[in-house]
Amino acid sequence: MVGGGRAGGAHGRLVQRPAQHQRTGTPGKARLALERTRAFRRLRNWRVGIEARISHLKRCFGLRRTRLRRLGGARTWVGLGVFAYNLQRMTVVSS
């Protein structure tokens, strides 16, 4: 699988990255024991929450694509989207 991003310094060469395939079959006993720990479940649930929040920001606040140029513009665009999200959350909590 070829990586889609640019890397490799100033020349912008494309870098091949190895494909990571999803494992199939039944997990081993050690893996099952790890997945049953409280810490593993908390981290999994935290990540699920973050993914949902990012999806919400992309859908509702226009963060699929920045309309401003360069990195500074992207930071501004994301900052304004997060600010709008926080305002929305504050109105829900206060009412």
Mean pLDDT across all amino acids: 86
Low-confidence stretches: none
Q: Report the helical percentage.
A: 55-70%
Q: Characterize the main sheet.
A: 2 strands, antiparallel
User: How many distinct domains?
Assistant: 1
Describe the structure.
Helix content is 58%, strand content 8%. With 95 residues, it is mainly alpha-helical. It has one domain (26-94). A two-stranded antiparallel sheet has the order 1-2. The longest helix is centred in the C-terminal third of the chain and has 25 residues, at 70-94. The protein is flat. The N and C termini lie far apart (50 Å).
List the helices and strands and how they pair.
Blueprint lengths: L1 E5 L7 E3 L12 H7 L2 H23 L9 H25 L1
Antiparallel strand pairs: 1-2
